[in-house]
Amino acid sequence: MVDETFPFTRPRIYLQGRWSASPHVEIDGRLCIGNPEIPCDPKWAVQEAIRLARKLLQDIAEGTEDGDFEEDFSLYWRQSVHSGPEVRLLLQEIDRSNLIATCATDAGVYGFSTRAALTKWWKHRFASVPTKPRQGAVISLTSLPHPDNYPETGADLWLLVESLSEDGKPILESLLRQMPKSLLIVLAGVSSKGRRHAVGLMLRRPTGPSGRAVNRRQIEVGFRRSGVPPEVLCGRLQVARLRTNQLDAAISRLPHGDLGRLADARVAIIGCGSLGSGVARLLAKSGVGHFVLVDPETLGWENIRRHQLGAAFVGHKKATMLAKALAQENPDIGSAVAHEVSVEKLLKAGGAPLANVDLVIGCTASWSANSMMDATFGRGRLPVLYAWMEAHALAAHAVLIMNGESYRTGFDIVGNPRIEASSSAKPTPPECGANTSPFGAIDVGHAENLTSRLALDFLRGKIERSVWKTWQTDAVALAEAQGVWTEEWVRARGTPNPEGQLSSCPWWEA
After folding, report:
1. Torsion angles phi and psi, residue 142, rounded to 5
2. Could you report the per-residue pLDDT of 314-336, keeping only the tens digit for each?
3. Integer angstrom CA distances of residue 119 from 116, 231, 264
4. What whole-number distance in Å separates Cα of residue 271 and Cα of residue 192?
5. pTM for the full predicted model
6. Cα gap 73→21, rounded to integer Å
7. Please, which residues bridge with residue 270 across strands?
8. How many Cα atoms sit within 13 Å of 176 on the Cβ side?
9. How does DSSP classify residue 90?
10. Closest CA to 359 of 502, 262, 252, 446
């Protein structure tokens, strides 16, 4: 099949029937066989596509593609699924069979590892408590089945569990004995390359002439009450394969072990302004599980072009609204707690909310706040990452302080840095004051990425000593701000790349 732009696009091969899936099957069932685009020769492009498709069919028939059916199990499972409800899963543990908590809505069925996990996610996403939660099961499989063996009937399901699960039969039997009208079962396993899969199906009682589910007596016909063998009971139920989506499918590309470590990590972000709000959002989307947000200020109209919270939040406290936004946008995070006070007041009161965090990130650009944090946490008591931008956002800095060092060694007694990367002849608007100036969303984006990456590297155990990272803008932005790189910076770090540059060095020694 070709589209209207052929021969400048590749022809696509669709295989119907049993082998509609392939080594690179897409969500909509399209077969990706990797045929090249050959705009110069349309006939050859079609011939090559057909050749590859035929070779694939031969490989499948010979069994050389069996490993791929296991590797892409979740995608193959979706094929030939009839329209209807989908299942949305958030399961922390699939290595053993267990009961799970489920909840059904018009949009589909949700499955969670525990009732507590279900309730927490629901509150984060919908600001309410789930109604009528029920039990389902995750059945851990020792190997993932070939498409020929996907269960189509209740009897198929029982045989699959019996042959491929070491601990699933007792759990499935216990749920069947309760005779529910419907029951969510999740088949889970790990491919040979370590890819984790979980797919859902629904067991239902058959319907009678009235269209309603048959009653318990009809299911147990031929046996005494509660005496139906579990394999017979399962065989009398109907199976519906469900389109399965993972609620954490958008999680970071990081290795699975690192994701678990990040999910347990606790990060305090001091200052929830333009930079702090962006760092919080990036870390939450990267898998960090717990946040303590500290900021006493209210969002104003001057913030909305560069702050993660827009006009709808003007007049509200930044920390509180950011905590709500993080939980709603990333309902699988552990917690996001806001404190509408300055860090100085929080520390003066004992700093209890910061007692058990793994990392403090200071985004206040306040010498007072940073000095008090350094006095409280410095000299190795707790790692602190300080982030700030120079005037006109020409340079952004992120400094991780640990191992007995001090942030204040890089500044004089009133907070002037020992060295700055840039200087500018462009005046600072009077309404901004101090050494800062307005900047846009793109400008702050560099600082957000710089700070978030350094934080993630630390939380993943990739950094063991203090480090100072700096981003310097490109030559065009430098000229627009009437700026230059300072001579002392060039002597220390060299002339920056005109396209922008990231550099790194140790922090100042005392």
Report:
1. -75, -25
2. 999 999 999 999 999 999 999 99
3. 5, 33, 18
4. 45
5. 0.81
6. 10
7. 294, 362
8. 26
9. E
10. 262
